[in-house]
Amino acid sequence: MTTQTMTLAQGLNAGLRQALRDDDHVVLLGEDIGALGGVFRVTDGLQREFGPRRVVDTPLAESGILGTAIGMAYRGYRSVVEIQFDGFVYVAFDQIVSQVAKMHARTRGKVPMPLTIRIPVAGGIGAAEHHSESPEAYFVHTAGLRVVSVSNPQDASTVLRQAIACDDPVIFFEPKRLYHVKGEVDPAVDLADAPPMSAAHVVRPGRDVTVATWGSHVATGIDAAEAYDGASIEVIDLRSLSPWDADAVTESVRRTGRLVVVHEGPRQAGVGAEICATVTERCFEHLEAPPVRITGHDVPYPPAKLEGHHVPDLDRVCFAVDQVLGRVPLDVPTVSAAVRSGGEMAA
Amino acid sequence: MPSTTDPRTRRLSRAGHDSSVDSAHGGARDHAPATARPASAREGVDPGDGTVRLVDADGVRHPDATYDAWVEDVDHAALLRLYEDMVVVRRIDTEATALQRQGHLALWPPLLGQEAAQIGSARALDVDDFVFSSYREHGVAHVRGIAGADLLRVWRGVTGAGWDPHEARMAPMQVIIGAQALHAVGYAVGILADQETDERGEAPGSGATAGAAPTEAVISYFGDGATSQGDVAEAFTFASTWTAPVVFFCQNNQWAISEPVSLQSKVPLVERARGFGMPGVRVDGNDVLAVLAVTRQALHRARTGGGPTFIEAVTYRRGPHTTADDPTRYRTSAEIEHWEARDPVDRIAAHLRAEGALDDDGEARVQAAADAVAAELRAGVTSIADPSWPDVFADVYAEPHAELDAERDAYARYLDGFETSEGGGR
């Protein structure tokens, strides 16, 4: 195996190049992905290498891009769609949810939809409005889709190739904060030997608290684990959000007895809610404390100058660890107080 | 470029189709008449008030300098087959409506009045062409060889798609208004990609395929309401700038459930084409011969590198939107009578009778054939087995999905808790 030092964006680029080489029915569709190489340069040089019929600049219409990819799938093509920013995927929502996700089931397997939908995701980079969204829960809630998110350059390369090779549609989240993070990458990993796309990784073993997260917050979790005094923290990179590796998480929680889930998307009906519910169902008797979620608030993503109050950080993760260890009280939010007070008024 | 072993890209065998029907319309892959002018991007751009009509409501054939050439092979025998197609699909429609009223179908969207638009356009297609339709194109499905139970499976509520899309070269019906227009464009882009032999091929829209040998084409059906959808506008843009081999066939049947076409557009729909840089043609959608002519021309343009065409077929939905609709709430009987006088089947029958090609015996024979198809349809639908509960979980994913399997297994254990199948067990 030969590794090179690459940024996460370069790892993605390497993965795309390998996929384009491996299968001549792989095509890339997106806005500005040709001469420009994408606004994050993830497709840099690929149109020059593979030509404008395989690396295709599309008109500016995300629903149109997805609809085109669907028609190409009927024809046997395997499209990799680039959505330029997370906030731009909503106009393609019908084509993803009503068409892509359901096609294999409604045709009883006659028409697979082997699409990979790449979406730069989340905030923390001081971006403009609609450029910092965390929309993963919408897609996790949709049967027929697989949803993954990468946290390092090697996964960027390998998991992207796995997603493209997968006969199911895959929503592939690329944390924008990590595009320039460097790591060692073997761009030619044999996919037969690689861990399955849906398997979580324990990235830092520990004994007392399990922190489950993905994407850019894997680094937040590791930072918290290293900074935290007096307890040993295990950090799990879920990698896949649908399906998510409940076995890996519950195995860890049975050992630690405590769970903290960290994600940037809003709390309400977020992926963390599903993880906490499942862990509670499956290892209730092992829990030393209620699972705690550290998430974005239930608000529209705030302006850049305020995102420090929204995006989970090391301090908030450490505070959650304090909570599950009983060092500070669980701070049950104000909703229940409001409901109580409303109830008293009614009475 | 396509893998010859990939079932998704394999060519449809002609064996599954009625070759005599195909050959009735020339039998060639492409129907360009020798005398036709080369397809031009300018052609048809300005519709003026020139709705294409070859056979009027009284069955009188009118010569047309442009379009006669596109149907010069259509003799009496071929016209009789188009007539029979329309009688058969009208009979299918009547039978399906009855089946819904009798509780055999959950719902049915009738096509009454739109027979010529569907038959004329579908008979212009080659077997290798691909169809992306809405939910009312039963006539098109019939022409694609979809018959009996397959046509009604979805409406009985037993599955999400009644037929194998690759076998029939027709996607399952689309309920989300206009979404299929984009799928047609994607399929057409796939055809362009297949054409590429040079790895460093030209970009879509470069015109590199102009003048290439005739190839497959795609047709997308949608209604007047769909022209208001963003997806349809996006499909027009993508197809036009990429010169994709696709025909947009709009059946303007005047009503989107209760909303008149005047709510969708201030101008004739055909004028939309100009802004997207593609030819548009308005045709009398109740004139099967004219519809055949304009669709052949559009398909020829698509196959020869001329890109997309927008066809507005002006017709009328004489029945309800679906069997759950009540059109008396939003339109008058006088309006229906106006369109009954422009019936697509009657006018061809009148024309054939005037030509001496159809008599009472001939009509009776066609009606008997249609009745036989209806009987087959009824037998087919009542023989469809109900699906079983594991189908709920089937084929949601193409690759193994342990979590969903576990969910299914838990439900199986729950069902096993019931003592008898009458109690809800499996």
Structural commentary:
The complex is a heterodimer of chains A (347) and B (426). Chain A is α/β, with parallel strands linked by helices and 347 residues long. Chain A has two domains: 4-185, 3-Layer(aba) Sandwich (Rossmann fold); 201-324, Rossmann fold (3-Layer(aba) Sandwich). Chain A is 35% helix and 19% strand. Chain A has helices at 8-22, 46-50, 62-74, 93-106, 136-140, 153-165, 217-227, 246-256, 271-283, 314-324, 335-346, and strands spanning 4-7, 26-30, 55-57, 78-82, 116-121, 146-149, 170-175, 182-185, 201-204, 209-213, 233-237, 240-242, 259-266, 292-296. Chain B is an alpha/beta fold and 426 residues long. Helix content of chain B is 38%, strand content 7%. Chain B has a five-stranded parallel β-sheet with strand order 1-2-3-7-6, with helices on both faces. In chain B, α2 crosses α3 (115-122). The chains are: A alpha/beta (347), B alpha/beta (426). At the A-B interface, α3 and α4 of A face α7, α8 and α14 of B.
Which secondary structure elements does this structure contain, and how are they paired or packed?
The complex is a heterodimer of chains A (347) and B (426).
Chain A lengths: L3 E4 H15 L3 E5 L15 H5 L4 E3 L4 H13 L3 E5 L10 H14 L9 E6 L14 H5 L5 E4 L3 H13 L4 E6 L6 E4 L15 E4 L4 E5 L3 H11 L5 E5 L2 E3 L3 H11 L2 E8 L4 H13 L8 E5 L17 H11 L10 H12 L1
Helix pairs in contact in A: 1-6, 3-4, 7-10, 8-9
Chain B lengths: L18 H5 L52 H26 L13 H8 L7 E3 L5 H6 L5 H8 L8 H4 L10 H17 L22 E6 L6 H12 L4 E7 L2 E2 L2 E2 L11 H5 L3 E5 L3 H16 L5 E6 L18 H8 L3 H11 L5 H23 L19 H15 L10
Helix-and-strand structural type of chain B: alpha/beta
- DSSP E strands of chain B, number: 7
Unreliable spans of chain B = 1-28, 38-48, 197-201, 204-211
H/E order of the elements of chain A?
EHEHEHEHEHEHEEEEHEEHEHEHH
CATH topology of the largest domain in chain A, by name, is Rossmann fold
Q: CATH superfamily assignment of the largest domain in chain A? A: Thiamin diphosphate (ThDP)-binding fold, Pyr/PP domains
Q: Roughly how many Å apart are the termini of chain A?
A: 71 Å
SS summary, helix count of chain A = 11
* Tally of helical runs of chain B: 14
Which strand-content bin applies to the residues of chain B? 5-15%
The neighbouring-strand order within the major sheet of chain B is 1-2-3-7-6
Instruction: Tell me which CATH architecture of the largest domain in chain B applies here.
Output: 3-Layer(aba) Sandwich
CATH class of the largest domain in chain A: Alpha Beta
Broad shape of chain A: globular
Task: Report the sheet-strand fraction of chain A.
Answer: 15-25%
Task: Give the CATH class of the largest domain in chain B.
Answer: Alpha Beta
Multimer state: heterodimer
Largest inter-chain contact set: A-B, 51 and 58 residues
